[in-house]
Design a protein that fits this description.
This protein is mainly beta. It has a domain of 205 residues: Neuraminidase (6 Propeller). It contains 3 helices and 36 strands. Strands 1-18-17-16-15 form a 5-stranded antiparallel beta sheet, with no helix packed on it. A hairpin with a 7-residue loop joins β8 and β9.
Length: 424
């Protein structure tokens, strides 16, 4: 199965299960107290690896104007026009500088790391080999990745020009990881055990025995993580931590742009009304809550929704009404305190993915099963950016996940693949 398909299926498998939080049967150990100091974990020192010479890769293919999408794969839409590009079977993640898409494939026997200068190329393959996961450094100069061989193995870093390939660790089982905003550390989980890795020295520090999700603060001074005991803040420089919420907490964890608040799933699960697991509370999603990082107030619940997304100015949160509970799928915005909910779309029977704010905050992208849409955040006026016939012909819906926008707001990356897990 191609890399994009694999990633999307994994994400969708948890779509009605707390917004990305997998069900756990293990009982987490109590989180360390504020005075505890994380202990270093054994690790191999970083070591150089034989560098591969970058080679030319296939350029994005421009579709005919007005053409409908008919095949699976990864696509790019230009917001200011009707132009669409197909850039292969592998999914793409934007470099922080917004200039390049990193395309990588998992577990297929023909994986690679490929860099695509959008929209028309060129494209270069900087590493050949199956990839389990990959992430850009904050300054867009390097890429961290884990290899795949019967599962995720080892963690590496490579420069965007293909030079400086270096092994950071020899630990197996690293599926997900994220750079700190300063680029000094990488947080990763292994069997839900949270670690920090110093990129220069290779030293690995234990952070928590069990974590559903984790995310860096915008300034990189703190790492938030959640488990069945609550939401915590860990400060790597001091080893100090404090608890922001007491109770069952999940993921994703989303910091406000100014770092003053965190949105996250919290509290008991709520039984879904449709689907194979209807009326079973233990399988349902949690309500999204917002908590003040300074601890000045208890977490405040938002209306039932999934995929929360902070506006760039931090004054509003967009979300998709949780149709597995409410029975309707529409895009809303709401203030962080849960007030002033505003409905932006009125197609409740149309299953959707997203929403994702544009970098300017003027519009919000979302997808239906066969369309990529853009809605004005003030007026609610919507327009279609792309239409797919793949759902009717080959059974593959359109997907919008992660951070689809380029940093300049000109392009949106999306995919056609796999199944669409709605309330399964």
């Amino acid at each position: 199965m191609r890399g994009l398909v694999f990633v999307l299926i994994v994400l969708l498998a948890f779509a009605c299960n707390g917004g990305g939080e997998a069900l756990r049967t293990a009982t987490p150990e109590p989180s360390p107290s504020a005075t505890s100091t994380p202990s270093p974990a054994p690790t191999a020192a970083p070591s150089p690896v034989a560098t591969q010479t970058p080679v030319e890769a296939a350029r994005p293919v421009l579709l005919e104007e007005g053409a409908h999408i008919t095949q699976e794969g990864a696509y790019l839409a230009e917001v200011g026009s009707d132009r669409l590009w197909w850039f292969g079977d592998q999914g793409g993640i934007w470099s922080p500088d917004g200039e390049t898409l990193l395309s990588w494939g998992c577990c297929i026997g023909q994986g690679s790391l490929e860099l695509i200068d959008v929209p028309d190329g060129p494209a270069a393959r900087i590493f050949s080999g199956d990839i389990a996961s990959a992430a850009w450094s904050p300054d867009s100069s390097r890429i961290a990745f884990s290899r795949y061989e019967n599962g995720p193995e080892d963690l590496f870093v490579i420069s965007r020009d293909g030079s400086g390939l270096k092994q950071l660790s020899d630990m197996a089982g690293i599926w997900t990881f994220t750079w700190s905003p300063t680029g000094e550390r990488i947080a990763f989980d292994r069997d839900y055990h949270l670690h920090l890795l110093d990129v220069d020295s290779g030293e690995i520090t234990d952070v928590a025995d069990f974590a559903h999700a984790y995310a860096w603060s915008p300034d990189g001074t703190a790492l938030a993580f959640s488990n069945d005991s609550g939401l915590y803040l860990h400060e790597p420089d001091t080893g100090e931590r404090r608890q922001l919420a007491v109770g069952q907490a999940g993921g994703p964890i989303l910091w406000s742009p100014d770092g003053s608040r965190i949105a996250f799933p919290f509290g008991p699960r709520i039984a879904m009304t449709p689907g194979a697991y209807a009326h079973e509370p233990q399988t349902g999603p949690r309500l999204i809550h917002v908590v003040e990082v300074d601890g000045s107030a208890e977490p405040k619940p938002l209306p039932p929704g999934r995929s929360p997304s902070w506006s760039p100015d931090g004054t509003s949160i967009a979300y998709l009404s949780e149709g597995c509970i409410t029975g309707e799928w529409d895009v809303y915005t709401v203030r962080p305190d849960g007030s002033s909910a505003k409905r932006l779309t009125d197609t409740p029977d149309s299953a959707k993915e997203g929403p994702a704010w544009s970098p300017t905050g003027s519009s919000i992208a979302y997808s239906t099963l066969d369309k990529l849409m853009l809605v004005d955040a003030d007026s609610g006026e919507a327009r279609t950016l792309a239409v797919s016939d793949a759902l009717a012909t080959i059974g593959d819906p359109l997907h919008l996940h992660g951070s689809p926008w380029s940093s300049d707001g000109q392009y949106i990356a999306f995919g056609i693949s796999g199944a669409h897990g709605i309330c399964d």
